[in-house]
């Protein structure tokens, strides 16, 4: 899935192509969570217990929310990677670069969503900013905002002074703020505080990246991949069957996501990520932003029904094509503009590793299945 021994070695100093491959995988996981998995058991008689078990069991294998946790870990990694040592951070350039890269595509995606006929309000409860797929981007904007201060604290006092209060606050809020992620501004702010330690784990991983041991065993990496999926599925069951809140299960899943992504990086040292996935990772943010508008637009097309399987394939192909077009027309130009703002002072940091350009794009989030929208 992520790495193959015979894949082209794309890694250069300071870059981790496996993260690009993971990002497109996670973005596609989000897409399936909203649109639905391949209709393998479409048409099965759900009047029987066996039929219901097949259909409901198959539809539950994908839950998008844990993918946001994977994105948070990768985001923290990529933001901290070029600044993990003693590099000078230009605050103004850093903020300009971050917000141009993120907010320009978001604004375009919101406009396109409105043009498709979605009348969801832009401000207010259950609006497009705090619900749908943008709540995690809101969280990440907060993390970008506090990162310079967090980095200063880490350099001066170490990780402990950051992690202990962050995890304690997250645990307390996860218990008392049961309405976090309820589609309101307050809910999004609560979620940002609860999930902040997960983002910090990505920063820790960036500092560990230079000394991670290589993993050769295919059995080991596939074991971790299965464990990550199983943890995601258990979180889904705990939330929908037993009433455990999303922030609670996602905070716990964050530790597993950190360990899994660390293993992927270790495995990629000897097994480079598959080149097509790495390339697709460049526009995973566009896939994240555009998959819902593309789904809505596809429904408006006067196309004949081709059956469950072919309809699914045609819709997915349309989503991918629309997302790539958005990348070429909107996301990539915004990245080129943002790159004019170097956050590192080159005259003082010429030995600094290059920023993981693809990893800087967040593509950040995940939601429940179409029947489980937040």
Short description:
The chain is mostly helical and 374 residues long.
Task: Throw out a few tags for this protein.
single chain, 374 residues, mainly alpha, 13 helices, disordered C terminus
Strand content: under 5%
Percent helix among the residues?
A: 55-70%
Gyration radius over CA? 20 Å
Class based on secondary structure composition and strand pairing: mainly alpha
Gross morphology: globular
Number of continuous helical runs: 13
Order of helix and strand elements from N to C terminus: HHHHHHHHHHHHH
Domain module tally: 1
- Tally of extended strands? 0
The biggest sheet, with number of strands, parallel, antiparallel or mixed sense and barrel status, is: none
The oligomeric state is single chain
Query: What's the mean pLDDT score?
Result: 86
Distance between the termini: 29 Å
Low-confidence stretches: 4-11, 346-374
Explain this structure to me?
The protein has one domain (17-367). It is mainly alpha-helical and 374 residues long. Helix content is 64%, strand content 0%. The chain starts with 16 loop residues before the first helix and ends in a 14-residue tail after the last helix. Helix 1 (17-35) packs parallel to helix 11 and helix 6 (160-176) packs antiparallel against helix 7 (185-208). Mean pLDDT is 86; it is low at 4-11 and 346-374. The longest helix is centred in the last third of the chain and has 31 residues, at 308-338.
């Amino acid at each position: 899935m992520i790495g193959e021994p015979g894949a082209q070695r794309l890694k250069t100093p300071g870059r981790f192509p496996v993260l690009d491959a993971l990002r497109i995988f996670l973005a596609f996981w989000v897409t399936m969570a909203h649109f639905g998995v391949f209709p393998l058991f479409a048409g099965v008689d759900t009047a029987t217990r066996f039929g219901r078990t097949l259909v409901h069991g198959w539809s539950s294998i994908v839950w998008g929310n844990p993918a946001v946790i994977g994105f948070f870990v990768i985001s923290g990694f990529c933001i901290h990677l070029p600044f993990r040592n003693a590099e000078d951070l230009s605050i103004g350039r850093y903020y300009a670069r971050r917000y141009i890269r993120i907010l320009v595509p978001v604004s375009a995606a919101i406009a396109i969503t409105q043009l498709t006929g979605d009348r969801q309000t832009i401000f207010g409860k259950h609006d497009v900013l705090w619900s749908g797929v943008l709540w995690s981007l809101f969280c990440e904007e907060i993390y970008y905002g506090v990162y310079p201060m967090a980095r200063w604290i880490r350099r001066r006092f170490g990780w402990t002074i950051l992690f202990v209060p962050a995890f304690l606050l997250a645990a307390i809020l996860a218990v008392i703020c049961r309405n976090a992620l309820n589609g309101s501004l307050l809910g999004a702010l609560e979620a940002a505080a609860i999930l902040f330690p997960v983002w910090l784990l990505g920063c820790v991983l960036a500092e560990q990246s230079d000394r991670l041991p290589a993993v050769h065993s295919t059995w080991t990496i596939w074991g971790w991949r299965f464990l990550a999926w199983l943890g995601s599925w258990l979180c889904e069951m705990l939330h929908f069957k037993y009433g455990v809140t999303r922030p609670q299960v996602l905070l716990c899943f964050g530790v597993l996501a950190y360990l899994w992504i660390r293993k992927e990086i270790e495995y990629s040292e000897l097994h480079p990520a598959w080149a097509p996935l790495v390339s697709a990772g460049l526009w995973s943010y566009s896939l994240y932003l555009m998959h819902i508008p593309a789904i809505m637009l596809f429904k408006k097309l006067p196309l004949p029904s081709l059956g469950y399987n072919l309809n699914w394939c045609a819709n997915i192909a349309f989503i991918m094509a629309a997302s790539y077009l958005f990348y070429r027309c909107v996301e990539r130009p915004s990245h080129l503009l943002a790159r004019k703002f170097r956050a590192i002072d080159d005259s003082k940091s010429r030995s600094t590793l290059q920023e993981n350009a693809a990893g800087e794009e967040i593509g950040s989030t995940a939601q429940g299945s179409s029947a489980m929208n937040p």
